[in-house]
Please model this.
Amino acid sequence: MEFGLSSEQTLLQDSVNRFVADNAPLDVVRKIAKGGETDAGTWQGLAELGIPGLMIPEASGGVGLSVVDAAIVAECLGYHVTPSPFISSAVIAPVALIEAGGHDDLLGAIATGRRRIGVAFSEAIGARADAGISASGDKISGKSLFVMDSDADDYLVASGEGHLYLVPAGAAKRSKLTTIDNTRSTCELVFDNARAQLVSDDISVFNKALDAGRVVLAADTLGAAQNMIDQAVAYARERVQFGRPIATFQAVKHMCAEMAADLEPCRAFIWYASYALGNIPEEARLTACHAKAHLAEVGKGIAKTATEVHGGMGFTDLLGLHFWFKRIGFNRQMLGAPELVREEAARIQGLAA
Model:
């Protein structure tokens, strides 16, 4: 059995990589991270490639592809630390809206990039003492922290029970938050009897959207970690110490080899986890949890080691290595830290109450 990307998927990968390399190089990433620009231009360019509608059915104006294809795109975006609302607007929101049904017009607007949907799932995953969302009829109140996409037109908000609501951005008090990853925008939403449209009160809809988000976040980490390895190897070949490149030192060779050995199996892991979401429902949730937790740990180790290979230069803004380091750190915590996700995996297997 051949287990790899199809020719169409390879073409998709090449197209996204080419576009991002040409239109969102590190100089553009720096400007967006510093607040000098927004990710709107990059997102519009990706929309012209059909990326926002990647998982939306053709009948609703999308491309009609799968989570596997979304993971391929996420790996490319992570490799280039591309600022975009891909995970929230092109993955989590479409999965939830498709599973809930009856949102063809909104899906069509998402597919063209005309509408951006932010995601406020934090309070359903692990509510904080000073936050939480409660609903009464068609009104919601409360606060949600670390909401994905501070520039969204609407938000998909999860209550503590996993019920999903669609709320216009104007119905909430929105405040931008600062995280370690300035290539991604996050915010705090405060609702005070805000009018909301119930999307679904079925916990399975929330779970499927969450699982897709976790797998695609893990794929983003995969791309970011691969880039850090590539940068470390290239630097080791160029950096001369004691009259020879540091790549010839056994210790540096071992560091690079260990990073590559740790990351390579993760690619198949991501492909399998994303495939399971659409084809092996009995394994989907558990595999999504394992993929998210494992890539968080592997990514953290690679970020640390790749920075060490660069020595003091690794901490400077000149190289920009910190953008990938922070991207991996952000992905580690978003939608559940490894400890929380492993506990969830234990509950799925009946190993914890």
